Amino acid sequence: MNNVNLVKVEYEEKSILRNLLNLYEYDVSEFNGSEPNRFGFFEYLYLDHYWTPHGVEEEGRVPYFIKVEDNLVGFTLLNNVSCLNRKDITSTIAEFFLLKNWRRKGIGKSVALQLFRSHPGKWEVAQERENKRAQQFWRTIISEYTNGNFEEVMTEEKVVLVFDS
């Protein structure tokens, strides 16, 4: 799809990202069993880790909005925290979310390819073991991107794909 852009989330836009994270956390609650807090919101514990107290991004953490033309359609959060505890991992997709009416239009693939190309190195992409749709999405894109040259690791909770970009 044309006109798909990744736009870094500025500190001043954190509340917008928090709103989208609530929708995301609701979406994935069917896989991870999370529940809303007493105010009816799903909390994302690591949001503040994407900026220091002075509004500067923490090293290795990059929050992006996903936009199609001027429409805000989702977000992705990158970091360098390996769920396999590998020291050679340079980038991981911590979270990846598209609003439902923007899915299955090639946007996710476009975003993934932009991420892989703009952050070269050793990647780790993990999904909940129960989230079969996400696993298929990432296997297909990463297999195509790497010509099948990736490693798949199963942990107790996750399916993790590791590859070089």
Protein traits:
single chain, alpha+beta, 7 strands, globular
Structural description of this entry:
The protein is α+β, with helices and mostly antiparallel strands and 165 residues long. It contains 3 helices and 7 strands. It has helices spanning 14-32, 107-118, 132-146, and strands spanning 4-8, 62-68, 71-79, 91-98, 122-128, 151-154, 158-164. A 7-stranded mixed β-sheet has the order 1-2-3-4-5-7-6, sandwiched between helices. Strand 2 and strand 3 form a beta hairpin. The longest helix is centred in the first third of the chain and has 19 residues, at 14-32. The model has no long low-confidence stretch (mean pLDDT 91).
- Distance from N terminus to C terminus (CA atoms, Å) equals 21 Å
Mean pLDDT: 91
Q: How many DSSP H or I helices?
A: 3
- Main sheet: strands, sense, barrel: 7 strands, mixed
Work out the strand percent: 25-35%
Order of helices and strands: EHEEEHEHEE
- Secondary structure class reads alpha+beta
- Which regions have little confidence, pLDDT < 50, spanning 5+ residues? none
Gyration radius from CA atoms, angstroms = 15 Å
Helix-residue proportion: 25-40%
How many runs of DSSP E, i.e. beta strands?
Answer: 7
How would you describe the shape?
globular
Give the spatial strand order of the biggest sheet.
Answer: 1-2-3-4-5-7-6
